[in-house]
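Listing S7. Sequence submitted for prediction.
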Amino acid sequence: MIICIASMSLAQGATAPKDVFSAAERALSKRGVISVDVTRDIVADGKTLRFSEELGIKAPNVVFYRSKANTSGATDRSVLIIGTELTMVDHRANEFIKRRFTGSGTPISRLATVVGTIDSVDTLAIDVEALTKFFVSYQQFPQLNSVVTGSTISVHAGPKVTMNFDRASHLLRELCIENTQGKLHAQFRYRDTVTAPSLPVSASARQVQVFNDHPLEAKFTTPLAKSVANACAGAFRTLLSGFVEISVDATVTELIFSDRRFRERRANLTWMYDGSQLTVLNSKTNTAYRGASTRVRIPGVVAALGGQVDPFTMRLLRREFPLADLFAKSRVVSSSGTIESKGSAFDILRSDAMGSRVSMLVRRDNHLPESTTADVLGPDGKGVYSSLRQFKYKSLNAIKSDSETKLDIPASVRVLPLPVVKN
């Protein structure tokens, strides 16, 4: 039940709404460490949804966020950013992510680069600029008035908007808004703390590259086919480092990666990314290039220098399932049994779509793909072109040193800046 009313008959005094707003802005700006719980009840179409967030900020480099909801299938996840280190925990799946963080800006913008859009109500509890903009939107409201009741100062913007402030701390404690779409009731509970936010990780939690936000959408003909596909996707989520050799017909690509570092060698061109700097070495022209880059820019830069990033590597750079296209919504996936070869056992999957058929061998020991055979089909359903991709793996989740991904540039090679490539 939503209740957000300050009784006019119990008023002990009044103060100008503008002064209440200014005091709230000053109070928030003075808090060196912010620790607050935000609860949002939203009533729409006769249903009440509850969302709760826990936020913590120690300016300028520490940001904590935990989000929960009472809706079916909702996530329960936490994010902690300390300088350039990012930790994320999925409490329901008992999984965590640790990697380097390269975002910058305000605490809100840093957090938004990780979790996406921050609810505007949450920003009122941690961002003075957002709070000021919110107040400005009501300052010229003709029915704006304030009432003091005990320990609460209530500001009313007509009968359908109420803001309750703590009389001692001046902080915004409660917000009620009603419009044609429904009702919002938000509560802000601040905690007095002098310590920076922290995020303990359970010893039993499993480290992954990404959380399982995108279930496979293909039509699976049997539970076994779906189980094998999900196991393969899960294997990549927990693949944190390793060496992969990819053979496509006569082309061989060697990839080694660990945490944020990648090195790929193809024919005469090798590139290495350390999380912020991209280095490209062309052994044919005896030329190297180096400069700041992001993951998403790497394929374009390498292409501009006459190379090509393997699609498998592209997916890993984006922290995506490399075989996601084979389990897209348009495809039908079936199981064709198992085989054994050279002492290893494999599941056989087939992924069909209009004009395309892909057969893949999935290792039963680590659930990674051993090979994929893609056939382009003609109008009669017969293959007109076939391509085989084979994978070899070493040192899976065992690369600990940055030196293993290092790219040494010979002293005789001149180093030039990276070309400018439009996104």
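Caption to Listing S7: primary sequence and predicted structure tokens for the chain studied. Residues 5-12 have pLDDT under 50 and may be disordered. Residues 223-237 form the longest helix (15 residues).
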